[in-house]
Amino acid sequence: MGKRYYCDYCDRSFQDNMHNRKKHLNGVQHHRAKKAWYDYFRDSSAILCDEQTKKPCRKFLQKGICDFGPNCRFSHMSEDDMFDLKRQVEDERRLREDYVDRKLPGRSIEDWLSRWAKKQTSLGSKGDLKDKEDSEEGPEESDIPQHLLSISVLPPSLLPPPPGGWKVNVNTEWG
User: What is the pTM of this model?
Assistant: First the structure.
């Protein structure tokens, strides 16, 4: 049995040669499946914009079904669906604006990295000395940028150290 080509969009496989692959990739079924796949991940604001420019499908409004299905050039959305989509777009926009508003001005990763570098150099040269910036911070504001702490599943390398520091196990045996 020769090599087989599997198309993820169409969920089918066929013998892999230049003629079959070209025929499949240029076929209508493949183009429809590929479009459906990418449409699944479209932004709701882009869907709303497209649906507002389309005229309503008369056949879909009368019978509740259209022969063309998702490939119809007319809109299959009712007024209630359009209203729900508009509300979803507004909610997403509000969430984005709230996220931008929640960021503290002057608290970026670059600022944190520069303060961390200063702290490391001062610790290396003068023992356990703190910078003015670090001592001015209140207890409610941590040394780690706030938007990193809002992520629920951080890798261990990005988690803040425990309050007592990391346990250091001196192990002289190797191997």
Answer: 0.45
